[in-house]
């Protein structure tokens, strides 16, 4: 188990470094940061001054090393637009995104897992068909469109929920649904497939044969085993959700890290964008690492791979 | 159908249906696949013949005819789906928008398909170090937030159609690599691969003419999934203002432009979003259906 964790940790660190290098060079190679920073009206001389001031004239690898060592100490430089340290800017905005992500994944799990279980208990029943329809439709629904429809219906026509902002729990209801529904189809399908598989296994037949109550069979015996792959899927989806928060936060004007990402990209605020790409990737890397460890703990067969 | 000897029921009972006939039967018996294929075919025809079908120039503005409602909300047949905030015919923009979505979906899926398939097949076929490197690259790619990276790169490079297609194509290869690696591993040790190697077939030949036909069904399914993915991502990027730029008629952009008038004219948002939903739904239904009818376990 310890070897597995160490191996997996080594991989996670290596992935993190590669991602940091790619995200740094991607933005570096794509354009002239000094020219973008100076704006369209700037003269060549101004651009040259800025280039020297921010150190853009140095070789890229030197700049990357510089950036990386600062980043490891938690210093991501200063935002070009806000004139504040990027690290504190992100830290301040991250709480909204993390609340949103936690709500979104909880919503997805709390709706998709019961639906998947219900569908697996009676395959081809009405519930199964409704669940299948929801999963096919859910995957095709553009999230920004879904969000706007919710605003029109529940905020404008019915007046039940606030259309934007983050000042109360009510503000999080619609963003949670819009962020969470996209993860539902995959979780539901996996739960259904897992339950179907487990329910036809020998030990469930044994449990039935010795007269265990049906509820106990479903939840103590079947779901506990069927849920194992769902754990790692949920972790992966949680990582994707933080990325998806850009769209959701911009629709509902939630001032979280996703909204900050959108603002910074639109304003050419390079240090903030680079830091945010790294932070979002780190979340994904940490989540999948934890999910793998949890999986290996739940299921010893996973440790060998 | 003509009653020839081949269609004689007695003869058919003896010989049984050919694989082609069985496939046709499975396709025609699959509701989702049929619905998806029909909707997809209609939208494809609309996209190809857009100049013939569009009643107006999608770029022609008319300040006299701004935000006219669609015909079912009291508008006129001159603009069946109304006009937008610049007086452009909404139906014509919608029709040209099908071109943008389908073009982006197809080319992006093609680029990512070539990259991902090459990586996945190489990893599965050669194994060892190659497999380690590819698996690592897949991990790296999965850790990168797609929306954020795509937005940032498009913002820096400028939001032209080509840039959006290239960025999506270069980002969305992960599922191709994962699925093709797994599929290749499955057929890697089959007898016909060993037989081809034994008669001295070259590696490209073994891969292309022996293995690919047997894993192509998985590839087709992933192509549809990634097409849908690319189309949704383009729409989201354009909606955020950092994808395809105005005045190009992109459905995501149309939703974004209609957003400000959403309070009074919700159809400006509803119509393009609904068409986008329909297209992605049709592609997904086709993908799911193709997986069902081509799965080897259903062939018996």
Automatic annotation (TrEMBL), chain A:
ABC transmembrane type-1 domain mapped to chain residues: 94-291
Where, per UniProt, does this protein localize?
A: Cell membrane
Q: Which residues cross the membrane?
A: 94-118, 130-156, 168-187, 226-255, 275-298
Gene Ontology CC annotations of this record: plasma membrane
Does the record's keyword annotation contain Disulfide bond? no
Q: Where is the major localization of this protein?
A: membrane
InterPro entries membership: BPD_transp_1_N, MetI-like, MetI-like_sf
What protein name is recorded for this chain?
A: Peptide/nickel transport system permease protein
Q: Give the GO biological process terms.
A: transmembrane transport
Q: How does it sit in the membrane?
A: Multi-pass membrane protein
Q: Which family does it belong to?
A: Belongs to the binding-protein-dependent transport system permease family.
Keywords, alphabetical: Cell membrane, Membrane, Transmembrane, Transmembrane helix, Transport
Q: Key word Transcription present in the record?
A: no
Provide an example Pfam family for this protein. Answer: BPD_transp_1_N
Automatic annotation (TrEMBL), chain B:
Which parts pass through the membrane? 32-54, 100-126, 146-173, 219-244, 264-283
How does the protein associate with the membrane? Multi-pass membrane protein
Q: Which domain of life is it from?
A: Bacteria
Q: What is this protein called?
A: Peptide/nickel transport system permease protein
Q: Where in the cell does this protein reside?
A: Cell membrane
Give the PROSITE patterns listed for this entry: ABC_TM1
Is Transmembrane found in the keyword set?
Answer: yes
* Residue intervals of the ABC transmembrane type-1 domain: 98-287
User: Does the record bear Membrane in its keywords?
Assistant: yes
**What GO cellular-component annotations does this UniProt entry give?**
plasma membrane
Species annotation = Celeribacter halophilus
An example GO biological process term is:
transmembrane transport
Q: What is its main location?
A: membrane
Membership in a protein family? Belongs to the binding-protein-dependent transport system permease family.
Please provide the record's keywords in A-Z order. Answer: Cell membrane, Membrane, Transmembrane, Transmembrane helix, Transport
């Amino acid at each position: 188990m310890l070897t597995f964790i160490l191996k997996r940790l080594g991989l996670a660190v290596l992935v993190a470094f590669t991602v940091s290098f790619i995200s740094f060079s991607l933005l570096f190679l794509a354009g002239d940061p000094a020219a973008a920073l100076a704006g369209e009206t700037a003269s060549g001389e101004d651009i040259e001054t800025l280039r020297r001031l921010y150190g853009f004239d140095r070789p890229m690898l030197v700049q990357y090393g510089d950036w990386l060592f600062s980043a490891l100490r938690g210093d991501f430089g200063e935002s070009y637009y806000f004139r504040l340290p990027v690290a504190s800017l992100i830290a301040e905005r991250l709480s909204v995104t993390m609340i949103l992500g936690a709500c979104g994944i909880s919503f997805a799990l709390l709706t998709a897992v019961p639906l998947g279980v219900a569908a697996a208990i009676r395959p081809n029943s009405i519930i199964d068909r409704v669940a299948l329809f929801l999963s096919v439709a859910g995957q095709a629904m553009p999230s920004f469109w879904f969000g706007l429809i919710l605003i029109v219906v529940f905020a404008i026509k019915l007046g039940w929920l606030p259309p934007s902002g983050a000042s109360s729990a009510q503000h999080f209801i619609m963003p949670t649904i819009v962020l969470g529904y996209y993860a539902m189809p995959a979780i539901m399908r996996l739960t259904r497939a897992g339950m179907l598989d487990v329910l036809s296994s020998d030990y469930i037949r044994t449990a039935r044969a010795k007269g265990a109550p049906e509820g106990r069979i479903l939840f103590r015996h079947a779901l506990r085993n069927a849920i194992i792959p769902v754990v790692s899927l949920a972790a992966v989806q949680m990582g994707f959700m933080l990325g998806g928060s850009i769209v959701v936060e911009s629709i509902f004007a939630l001032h979280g890290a996703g909204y900050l990402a959108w603002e910074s990209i639109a304003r050419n605020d390079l240090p903030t964008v680079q830091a945010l790409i790294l932070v979002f990737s780190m979340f994904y890397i940490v989540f999948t690492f934890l999910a793998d460890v949890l999986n290996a703990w739940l299921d010893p067969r996973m440790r060998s791979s | 159908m003509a009653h020839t000897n081949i269609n004689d029921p007695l003869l058919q009972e003896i010989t049984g249906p050919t694989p082609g006939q069985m496939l046709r039967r499975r396709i025609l018996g699959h509701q989702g696949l049929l619905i998806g294929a029909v909707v997809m075919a209609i939208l494809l025809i609309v996209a190809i013949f857009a100049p013939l079908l569009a009643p107006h120039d999608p770029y022609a503005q008319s300040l006299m005819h701004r935000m006219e409602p669609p015909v079912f909300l009291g508008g006129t047949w001159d603009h069946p789906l109304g006009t937008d905030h610049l007086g452009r015919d909404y139906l014509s923009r919608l029709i040209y928008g099908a071109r943008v979505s389908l073009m982006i979906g197809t080319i992006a899926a093609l680029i990512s398909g070539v990259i991902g398939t090459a990586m996945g097949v190489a990893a599965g076929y050669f194994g060892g170090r190659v497999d380690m490197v590819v698996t690592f690259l897949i991990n790296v790619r999965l850790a990168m937030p797609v929306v954020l990276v795509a937005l940032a790169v498009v913002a820096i490079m400028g939001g032209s159609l080509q840039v959006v297609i290239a960025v999506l194509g270069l980002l969305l290869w992960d599922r191709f690599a994962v699925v093709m690696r797994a599929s290749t591993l499955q057929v890697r040790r089959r007898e016909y691969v060993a037989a081809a190697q034994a008669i001295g077939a070259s590696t490209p030949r073994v891969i292309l003419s022996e293995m690919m036909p047997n894993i192509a069904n998985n590839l087709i399914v992933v192509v549809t999934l990634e097409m849908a993915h690319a189309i949704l991502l383009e729409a989201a990027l354009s909606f955020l203002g950092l994808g395809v730029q105005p005045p190009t008629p992109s459905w995501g952009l149309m939703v974004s432009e209609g957003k400000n008038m959403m309070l009074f004219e919700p159809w400006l948002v509803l119509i393009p979003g609904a068409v986008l939903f329909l297209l992605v739904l049709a592609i997904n239904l086709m993908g799911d259906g193709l997986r069902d009818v081509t799965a080897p376990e259903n062939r018996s």
